[in-house]
Amino acid sequence: DKEEKAARAYDLAALKYWGPTTHINFPLSTYEKELEEMKHMTRQEFIAHLRRCTSSL
pTM of the predicted model, to two decimals? Predict the structure, then answer.
């Protein structure tokens, strides 16, 4: 569902930019795998990755 994918993309960007205390749509535990992957990316790299992964929205 497009709305859920968009909300998850927002959550991931918010977590990368503002950290785990920011308001997100889904529980933080939902993103454990993604959070681990994000640790090794700059903000710019992560946003490029996010755009590639969500280009079909």
Answer: 0.83
